[in-house]
């Protein structure tokens, strides 16, 4: 066992927790967590020790590694995406039992925190004491900071593995993609981000906060080899026209109405043409569930009409996967207890089924 792996294993055991436990609760959802633990570990007691022991298998496990980040502190409309990791995992286990991904667990989340840079020393000290029983602990305390710190070490130790992140609001994709892109760039790998969303997420800040669900894309552009290696699909809710975003930030966009007007095959052709001459080696797919039409995915904080249908999104993903290896991905903004339709469980289950199908496809591609 190498020193670096020993150190990473210790960091994982401190900064992460068993799958489903990223949402801090006392009694609420106890049964749901126990069901998930039963499915993952074959029992629902002594889970902390079983999970820590399971981390020893990571070096020889699948190339696809699941990480839950149960944080919605970076959201700003309707909250509830912190329950996404637990519900998406449970749906995947039920509907896609053949998946071979290794589940690394959840980031430990203090639900009031976003990033350590926003905290003063007194708050950092108090939170270190709460999380690690040591006010002088070297570990980060906020979910975005913990995620990025853990993944920098993860990619250094396991450069061939990829992380499938389950959020959480879309601010969580900031550390997921930043660590991924920096690791790839160090190895001379040219990676592009394919971002499915109803919104551009290209604000510079929102109400004075630079890292949030509406701005994360802006702050990973410099980690790409070229800014136009961020390709966005499904955009439709924006106060500015497509030309503003493309000309200001250098990204490429395919709005939802273009999919309807020109057909999904033409959009696929255009995306592949944009990638063709860029010497792209690998892809990361970030999928905000609100890229899908609100009739398909209503259990989210910002459901939007006139979006992509599930088959359209899957057609695009299949075409991309046929040409490029997908080595990182995430599923964001599924908020199981949020519903704009009034249909309750029916709406939630429909959203989860759509998110699980897309997630399962991406995970299978990452396993290759």
Automatic annotation (TrEMBL):
GO molecular function, one term: agmatinase activity
Statement: the UniProt record of this protein carries the keyword Hydrolase: yes
Alphabetical list of InterPro entries matching this protein: Ureohydrolase (IPR006035), Ureohydrolase_dom_sf (IPR023696)
Protein's GO biological process: putrescine biosynthetic process from arginine, via agmatine
Keywords linked to the UniProt accession: Hydrolase, Metal-binding
Protein family per UniProt: Belongs to the arginase family.
Name of the featured protein: Arginase family protein
Organism from which the protein derives: Colwellia hornerae
């Amino acid at each position: 066992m190498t020193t670096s792996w020993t150190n990473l294993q210790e960091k994982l055991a401190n900064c992460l927790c068993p799958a489903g436990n990223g949402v801090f609760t006392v009694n609420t959802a106890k049964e749901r967590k126990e069901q998930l633990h039963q499915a993952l570990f074959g029992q629902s007691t002594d889970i902390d020790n079983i999970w820590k022991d399971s981390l020893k298998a990571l070096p020889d496990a699948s190339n696809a590694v699941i990480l839950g980040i149960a944080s919605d502190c970076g959201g700003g409309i309707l909250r509830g995406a912190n329950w996404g990791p637990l519900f998406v995992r449970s749906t995947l286990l039920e509907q896609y039992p053949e998946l071979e991904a290794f589940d690394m667990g959840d980031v430990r989340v203090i639900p009031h925190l976003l990033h350590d840079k926003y905290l003063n020393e007194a708050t950092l000290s108090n939170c270190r004491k709460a999380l690690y029983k040591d006010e002088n602990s070297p570990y980060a305390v906020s979910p975005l900071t913990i995620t990025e710190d853990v993944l920098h070490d993860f990619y250094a130790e396991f450069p061939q593995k990829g992380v499938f992140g389950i959020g959480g609001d879309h601010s969580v994709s900031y550390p997921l993609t930043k660590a991924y892109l920096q690791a790839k760039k160090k190895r001379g790998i040219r990676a592009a981000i394919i971002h499915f969303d109803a919104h551009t997420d290209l604000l510079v800040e929102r109400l004075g906060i630079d890292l949030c669900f509406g701005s994360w894309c802006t702050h990973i552009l410099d980690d790409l080899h070229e800014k136009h290696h961020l390709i966005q699909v499904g955009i439709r809710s924006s106060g500015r026209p497509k030309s503003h975003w493309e000309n200001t930030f250098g990204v490429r966009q395919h709005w939802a109405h273009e999919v309807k007007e020109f057909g999904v095959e033409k959009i696929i052709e255009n995306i592949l043409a944009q990638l063709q001459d860029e010497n792209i080696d690998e892809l990361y797919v970030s999928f905000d569930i609100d890229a899908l039409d609100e009739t398909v995915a209503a259990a989210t904080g910002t459901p939007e009409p006139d979006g992509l249908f599930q088959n359209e999104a899957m057609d695009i993903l299949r075409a991309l996967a046929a040409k490029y290896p997908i080595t990182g991905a995430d599923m964001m903004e599924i908020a199981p207890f949020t519903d704009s339709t009034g249909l309750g469980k029916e709406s939630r289950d429909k959203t989860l089924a759509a998110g699980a199908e897309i997630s399962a496809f991406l995970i299978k591609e990452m396993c290759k």
